[in-house]
Each structure stands twice: as structure tokens, then as C-alpha cells.
Design brief:
single chain, mainly alpha, 3-stranded mixed β-sheet, two-stranded antiparallel ribbon, 7 helices, 9% strand
Length: 185
């Protein structure tokens, strides 16, 4: 939809143009509620240490990138050809290099992972760099992508930060929690 030359909406036109479109906007469009929730939550609650960028997006083959990074159609096509899998070197290599370069500046920093902690695609690669400093929202356990996205958007609307726990030693799988109650209008 974003790559079609006849696409009429603004994001597609920007993605196809020379300036590109912000990675955060493109990922939010592609994955809908889930990434939109992640990005809104990160923007609301990130507390980066002085001199460090606060929000990093894990990409399929470019490691960690800021959500403002300009993407073009060719980038999206390249991303689409790479499986996000810990065993895939085109994904894991750039991500590991990004963590190696950032690890010294994050020596005393807690990092909150807003992606799935129930699969090895993030946790197996990131934990060796951060250990106990890799945290995630405890309310993620048992929730699917859309439920996590909705939970994060509601937390932003309510101005309520979620409670974090270290990934190491945490229960990463669990019973599905009750559905989020309908939003009050």
C-alpha cells in the first residue's frame, strides 16, 4: 500500500519522495496498533541519560535506529526481505553491532524493551549486553501484540507508566490476562 506509486495518502507520498518518511510513522502504519502503542509510550515515558538518544527502534537489517530516520521505498523493500530472527545474520549482525557500540554509554542505564519478551528474537541478542538492566513491562506477560499496543496507548492517555521488571529471571510466558475493558467515551 505504501509502495504503490498511485497511493494517495501523505505517508506514501513522503515515503516515495526524495526526503522519505520517518521510520516511526512507517512502522506505525504497517503494524498499526502495536507499533503505534510502542512509539507513543516510548515518547511519553523515555528518560534517556544525558547525551544519549532516548528511543531506538529495532529494524530488520539496520540495527537500532531513531524513529525520525527517513525511510524510502527501497528501505522498506530491503526490510521486507529480512526475517526478524535471532539466527538470521542479516538481522542479528547489525543489531549486535549497535549494542556493542552503545553498551559503554549505557553502563548504568536501564533499558526498557517494548517488544516481545516471549521470543528469542530480541531477548537472546540483547540480554548479554544489558543483563539485569534489560527491563520490560510486567503487564506484557500473556498478552499478544494488539493487546500490548492497546495497553501502552491507554497508559499514555492516562499518564500512567507501567511497572517494569528485569527480563532475567522473569516469567516471560503466562496465562492470558483479562481483555482490556472497553474505553469510556
Amino acid at each position: 500500500m505504501l509502495q504503490r506509486p498511485e497511493a494517495g495518502h501523505d505517508l506514501a507520498r513522503r515515503l516515495q519522495g526524495p526526503e522519505g518518511a520517518p521510520l516511526g510513522d512507517v512502522f506505525a502504519f504497517v503494524s498499526s496498533l502495536y507499533f503505534r502503542g510502542k512509539l507513543a509510550y516510548a515518547r511519553a515515558f523515555a528518560r534517556p541519560p544525558a547525551g544519549n538518544a532516548g528511543i531506538h527502534v529495532i529494524t530488520p537489517c539496520d540495527g537500532l535506529q531513531p524513529p525520525e530516520l527517513a525511510l524510502r521505498v527501497a528501505d522498506l523493500e530491503r526490510y521486507g526481505g529480512i526475517p526478524v530472527d535471532a539466527e538470521e545474520p542479516r538481522y542479528s549482525g547489525p543489531l549486535l553491532r549497535a549494542f556493542e557500540s552503545l553498551a559503554p554509554t549505557w553502563a548504568d542505564t536501564e533499558v526498557v524493551l517494548l517488544g516481545s519478551v516471549a521470543s528469542p528474537k530480541y531477548v537472546d541478542l540483547i540480554t548479554p549486553f544489558l543483563g539485569e538492566r534489560l527491563l520490560f513491562p510486567a503487564d506484557f506477560v500473556g498478552r499478544g501484540d494488539m493487546s500490548r499496543g492497546g495497553l501502552m496507548l491507554r497508559s499514555v492517555e492516562e499518564g500512567r507508566e507501567l511497572r517494569y521488571v528485569p527480563v532475567l529471571g522473569a516469567a516471560l510466558h503466562g496465562a492470558r490476562p483479562a481483555r482490556l475493558p472497553p474505553k469510556k467515551r
